[in-house]
Amino acid sequence: MRFWFGSARFARLKFFVYAYQTLRCACPTEGDEHANKSSPQSQGVTLTTDSMEVGPLTSEPTWQQLQDFYDKNSSKLVIKDLFEQDPNRFKNFSLKLDTPHDGDILLDYSKNRITAEVLKLLLALARARKLEEARDAMFAGQKINFTEDRAVLHTALRNRSNQPILVDGKDVTPDVNAVLEHMKQFTNSVLSGQWKGYTGKPITDVVNIGIGGSDLGPLMVTEALKAYGRGLRLHFVSNIDGTHLAEVLKKVDAESVLFIIASKTFTTQETITNATSAKQWFLNHAKDPAAVAKHFVALSTNAPKVTEFGIDPANMFGFWDWVGGRYSLWSAIGLSISLAVGFENFLQLLEGAHYLDNHFRTAPLEQNVSISNCRPANVTGDSCQYQPKTQSPQTEE
């Protein structure tokens, strides 16, 4: 896929919102500590939730039609020829999504080996696999992560409309907003210089220690948004090989470094091993265990373990088991992003995601950017554009 955006202040933010949305799937999600090594999808078995049931993918008639098309035509599909055969190919195989604030998103898949027939079959396959039902089940809080019997509601983390979102009958929106407020206060305290290290120096460096979704998402976004940096130097440690941490520690000063320990259970072997090493390095300089509270914060749900480590529970930022690891940057795991670009810019990231959530939830498959499809214009007789409804991701019935 190729992506172009209107020139705007947060074009990059929009790109990453879009990139994450296109990776969305109605399948088991992985936490940073409980990744499924062999999912039912990979084994070709029947998938079920409370609201849908589908058999093996390769048993679908539409799948067989796609396979037949590929066998007969794959060697004949040359991009140059496809454009020569259809002067309107770009218009027919692209989708423009206007955003409410600054610029737009253009999805251009005309440079892929796809035809109107293939697109029609792909949409039919999506419907046969009950993609729309799976999407709706996710937004309704059903436990579509059936391997762990959990809801998949990362959308609640960026529910900027603040409409009720229920998990097991409880509205989680107030709890989400409470964590965001905590992140805001902490971010502003660090960036303003009010938060000081054990010798009175302000924070200059942040070291995020985590693995999987507790590392990759924040690393990607902070790297992409360096232009919006607020002055802190960000470092990420995920490799249990001691060399990784050692090289980072050479670049920081114990008097002005802040360590973020990101682990839901605070028992993840790789993360806690690195965190313990970082703590020992710090104490070799500070000589006072009480100083740990000024230089270590936790992204976790295990207050006893966090306290045992020496981190003040007041500096613990929580999240929930319905946050899959691959989507955790939208939660407190995104604290490093907030520190890097400022809390207001972090909110912009959430706003963009919420906008795309509404689009994904309400747009027809043919016009849904998140599903990366667009009805060919020669079928509709018009360009393919869509404005999402201004509704919340979920409202209480």
TrEMBL record:
One of its GO terms (biological process) is glycolytic process. Coiled coil: none annotated. It is an enzyme of class 5 (isomerase). InterPro entries: G6P_Isomerase (IPR001672), Phosphoglucose_isomerase_CS (IPR018189), SIS_dom_sf (IPR046348), SIS_PGI_1 (IPR035476). Its EC number is 5.3.1.9. Residues 1-19 form the signal peptide. It holds the Pfam family PGI. It catalyses: alpha-D-glucose 6-phosphate = beta-D-fructose 6-phosphate. Keywords: Gluconeogenesis, Glycolysis, Isomerase, Signal. Pathway: Carbohydrate degradation; glycolysis; D-glyceraldehyde 3-phosphate and glycerone phosphate from D-glucose: step 2/4. One of its GO terms (molecular function) is carbohydrate derivative binding. GO terms for cellular component: cytosol. Belongs to the GPI family. This is Glucose-6-phosphate isomerase. It comes from Tenebrio molitor (Yellow mealworm beetle).
